């Protein structure tokens, strides 16, 4: 009777052990061929993406007015953050090179383009007689009033 129990336990042990070994025994060459992934391109996440190209103003002629040149500086940035409080308010913008610029209320990005207001999802700049409204979708609208 003891002999039968020991033999039965050995058979069960060998059966379980062999199924575990056969489950872990893979053909490494076949799996390497099927799971081979193409290498991903190396992208710098801080450089920018195609969303910058939507709002960038392209100038075809060499003749631009001084006012137009001031606006173009704004078009090279993308709005990435707004911090608004009762005491101080700031916006943060980034350009295609990954450089960030933070502006407080009524600071100028360049001569003639000044941050005059901000809402929850847009920043409003004043450029001479017009207003430039920039949102998080990199859209800049020019209006005479806001």
Topology (elements, then pairings):
Elements: H1 2-24, H2 28-34, H3 51-55, H4 66-75, E1 77-84, E2 89-95, E3 100-104, E4 108-110, E5 113-118, E6 122-127, E7 130-135, E8 140-143
Antiparallel strand pairs: 1-2, 2-3, 4-5, 5-6, 6-7, 7-8
Query: H/E order of the elements?
Result: HHHHEEEEEEEE
Query: Which oligomeric form is depicted?
Result: single chain
Overall 3D shape: rod-shaped
CATH class call of the largest domain: Mainly Beta
Work out the radius of gyration.
32 Å
Distinct helical segment count: 4
Share in helix: 25-40%
Task: Outline the biggest β-sheet.
Answer: 5 strands, antiparallel
- Weakly predicted, low-confidence segments: 50-63
In short:
By secondary structure, this protein is α+β, with helices and mostly antiparallel strands.
Describe the 3D structure.
There is one protein chain. This protein has 146 residues and is α+β, with helices and mostly antiparallel strands. It folds into two domains: 2-34; 51-143, Roll (SH3 type barrels). It is 31% helix and 31% strand. The strands form two sheets. Strands 4-5-6-7-8 form a five-stranded antiparallel sheet, with helices on one face. The chain has a three-stranded antiparallel sheet with strand order 1-2-3, covered by helices on one side. The chain is rod-shaped. 11% of the residues are buried. Residues 50-63 have low confidence and may be disordered.
Name the descriptors.
single chain; 146 residues; alpha+beta; SH3 type barrels; 2 domains; five-stranded antiparallel β-sheet; three-stranded antiparallel β-sheet; 4 helices; 31% strand; rod-shaped
